[in-house]
Amino acid sequence: MERRLTSRNVSLDWVDRGDQDGDTVSAHLIQSTYTRLKLQYEEKLRQNWVEQLESPNQVLEQLSLAACLIELWKSMYGPLLATEQQPSKNTALFPGFVDLACGNGILVYILLMEGYKGVGFDACRRKSWETFPAEIQECLEERIFIPRPFADVLDQEIGVEIHTGDFPDNTFIISDHADELTVWTPIMAALASPSSPLSFFVVPCCSRSLAGSSYRYPPPKSADDKNGAGKVVYAIEQDSQPVSGDLRALRAIKMKEKTESGFLNSMIGSLAAKTMSIAEEIGFDVEKTWLRTPGAINMALIGGRQRVTREWLQNSGSRDSQTKRDQGDVVLKKIMEVVEHECSRDGGIEVAAKLWVERTKSLRQGQGIMHLAN
Fold first, then answer.
1. Which of 18, 66, 67, 197 has the smallest set of CB atoms within 10 Å of its CB?
2. Phi, psi for residue 54 in degrees, rounded to 5
3. In 3-state terms, what secondary structure has residue 264?
4. Membrane-spanning regions, if any (predicted)?
5. Helix (H) or strand (E) holding 122
């Protein structure tokens, strides 16, 4: 699904909920960062736009998402020494990010230019990557993701470069409109570091099963149901305006759609609820942020924020211990239970793995050398 902005101005509203745990991020900081990024990057990105199947208005969407992530990361890890005039005494080096299915690469470009180290990968190399400086292009990789549980049961070479989700400790995972990778995101975050699962930020899109096939998950029973509930920490609202027809009627319809209960009963809402359910079953604390764009509503899921904020700013990081190793064993057991259960509808893990490979191979043309990324 492609979200298009019809206005050149984006209003960001970071909602402070009194019943939440942990710190909040000021709406003023988000808006200020977005305004700065817009002035600094928008014109050049629009001038260099080369994608044929995407609207150049995605520049605004990626700028707003970058502003949200930057302020979120400041609250979790502290400010960057290289970019902040008055860094906190608790400042630690940012651990790095990975952008799954990074598409046009704009988000990766902005974050790297802002001083945050990281990489992005996608099944297909995009034309827009060539418009970025050489040092940015080096951080954009053409790879297909094969989940580790699938890679472990496959006995065949698939002929293309792959990634199995073996990310460095403490890496922050971005999963923005990553389609079939959406439900896998909390699983790969835990598999990468079972004793200290990686944090993640997910914006759900097309609904897929773990095997990668189209699948619509049933909606949660109610807004208070475990699968649909969560702490609504942030809200990002972008002004919308009907373009034709009875404005009063159209606005009434849009207002009805832009409710939590209405969203959770939609395909994407059900996907978000399922992803939350899997994450919580594994052991993540998951929070929600509402994303509103003209004609659409979406939700981002944030996993592991509270734990990382607590540990990172105390300079404890993810220290190894026997207790954490034992916790990691429990997490691995839960992961395999989830994967086995979810893959049962496709005939089991081995069948699901083969289905995944067949679908992902079609995403790229030509053959390459199979490579397992570490």
1. 18
2. -130, 150
3. helix
4. none
5. strand 118-122
Q: Which residue in 34, 115, 113 sits closest to 82, CA to CA?
A: 115
| Better pLDDT: 147 or 321 | 147
CB-based burial, 40-50: b 16+ in 10 Å, e otherwise = ebbeebeeebe
The per-type count for the chain, helices as H runs and strands as E runs, is 12, 11
Could you tell me the end-to-end alpha-carbon distance of the chain, in angstroms, rounded to an integer?
30
pLDDT-derived band at 326, boundaries 50, 70, 90? low
> Which token pair is 86?
């008055």
Q: Hey, which residues does 373 pair with through a beta bridge?
A: 163
Average pLDDT along the chain: 77
pLDDT band at 168 (very low <50, low <70, confident <90, very high): very high
Nearest to residue 189, comparing CAs of 316, 311, 318, 22? 318
* Secondary structure letter of residue 363 according to DSSP: T
Chain centroid, CA 255 distance in Å: 26
The DSSP symbol for 346 reads G
pLDDT of amino acid 310: 82
In the block, residue with structure tokens 């954490």? 324
Q: What is the pLDDT of residue 250?
A: 59
DSSP code per residue over 276-319:
HHHHHHHT--EEEEEEEETTEEEEEEEESHHHHHHHHTTT-TT-
